[in-house]
C-alpha cells in the first residue's frame, strides 16, 4: 500500500494541487504540515517523515515546491518516496521545468497525470513515454469511446508499445562515471568515490530482448574466470525493465527495453581514486595592498586521453579588485559575485602541466577577521575513458524476426563533486 493522498504545495505551504486517492485523510490535515515542518527545523530535528496525530506526512522538496504524500497506515516508505521522485521525473519531462508556475499553467494535465500515476493508493503507470501516448500537452480529457488507453498500459511490458518499426536497428550505450573527490590542504584524499550510470538510446523494431554483459566481479567469481580486469559494483539500481530474478541468480542483465532514451542502471564504487587533475596553489599577500595567486594544474591520467571543457574555480578574497591574469594555456576571468576566478582550458591532455597567475588589488585596511578559504573546484569531461575500468563485454539482441542490430558503446568520465582544499 502506498499513499492515501498526494499534495503539491508552494514554499509557503499553500496547496496548489491535491489528489485524495482513498478519502480517508481529510484535506484540512495538510494545514498542519508546514507549521510542523518549521517547528522541527527550528528544533534541529527535521526529518523526511513527519507525523501529526494519526496522519504521516512523507515529503520531498523540488525547486520551489513541496511534494507531500499522506497515509494513515504503516506504509512502505521507500515505495512512497520512489513514487514522489518518479512524479517529479514525469512532470519534468512534460513541462521541462517543474516549478510553481508550471503547475499553475498546467493544472488540468497535472490532475490527469496524478489519476494515471496512482489508483486507490497503488502506483500504476509511471512511464512518461507511455503516458504521453494518451495524455497530451493540450490536456484533453479522455472520453469513453472516442479515445482509448493504449494496450501497453495493461501489458506485462508496460514501458514499451508494440508495433515499433525502424529501418535501421541500433543501440547506443553510454557508460558515464562521475568522480567525487575531496582532498585536504596536506594533499591527503578524504573522500573518493565513483558514481556511474549506463544510459541507452534504443532504436529497435518489435519487442526485442537484450542481454548486457559487464566485467562484473561477482559474475567472474561465479564463472571461475580471472578477477584481474573485473570491477566490484555497489548500490546497483536498475530500470524497471530489468529482470531482477535473472540478475540475482546468474548476474545476467536481461531486459526488454523502452523505446528511445532511458537509464538502464546506476552503480557506485567506493575506491581510492588518484586525482585525475591535481591542483597546487600558492597565495601571497603584499603589505595588505595586493595579492598574487599562482595555480598549477597537472593531468594525472593517461597521456593518450584528453580532458575537455576543464574549468578550475579558484576562490579569491571578497574585497579583491583590479584583476590581472597570465595563463600558460586557456583563459581566466574574474566572477566578483561568486568571489572566484574561473580558469577555462578547452583541451587538457594527460601528463601535461599548466600555470595560471592572478594579481588583485586589496584595500589598504586589513580585515579584522580572517576569511575562511573555500576549496578549489574542478569541472572536466574525459571521453573514451572510465576510472573504474568497467567494460561492456557484450550486448546480445534477440528478436523473433531475427534482424541484425548494431550496438555502439561510448565511455565518459566527468567530474562530480570534485574539490581540493588549499592551505
UniProtKB/TrEMBL annotation:
Gene Ontology CC terms, in alphabetical order: clathrin adaptor complex; clathrin-coated vesicle membrane; trans-Golgi network
Topology relative to the membrane: Peripheral membrane protein
GO biological process, one term: intracellular protein transport
SUPFAM superfamilies: Second domain of Mu2 adaptin subunit (ap50) of ap2 adaptor, SNARE-like
Keyword Signal found: no
Keywords of this entry: Cytoplasmic vesicle, Golgi apparatus, Membrane, Phosphoprotein, Protein transport, Transport
Subcellular location(s) of the protein: Cytoplasmic vesicle, Clathrin-coated vesicle membrane; Golgi apparatus
InterPro entries in UniProt: Adaptor_comp_med_subunit (IPR050431), AP2_Mu_C_sf (IPR036168), AP_mu_sigma_su (IPR022775), Clathrin_mu (IPR001392), Clathrin_mu_CS (IPR018240), Longin-like_dom_sf (IPR011012), MHD (IPR028565)
Keyword Phosphoprotein tagged: yes
Gene3D superfamilies named in the record: 3.30.450.60, Mu homology domain, subdomain B
Residue runs in coiled coils: none
PROSITE patterns in the cross-refs: CLAT_ADAPTOR_M_1 (PS00990), CLAT_ADAPTOR_M_2 (PS00991), MHD (PS51072)
CDD domains listed in its UniProt record: AP1_Mu_N
Domain called MHD: residue spans: 168-421
Protein role: Subunit of clathrin-associated adaptor protein complex 1 that plays a role in protein sorting in the trans-Golgi network (TGN) and endosomes. The AP complexes mediate the recruitment of clathrin to membranes and the recognition of sorting signals within the cytosolic tails of transmembrane cargo molecules.
Family: Belongs to the adaptor complexes medium subunit family.
Quaternary structure and partners: Adaptor protein complex 1 (AP-1) is a heterotetramer composed of two large adaptins (gamma-type subunit AP1G1 and beta-type subunit AP1B1), a medium adaptin (mu-type subunit AP1M1 or AP1M2) and a small adaptin (sigma-type subunit AP1S1 or AP1S2 or AP1S3). Interacts with P2X4.
Protein name per the record: AP-1 complex subunit mu-2
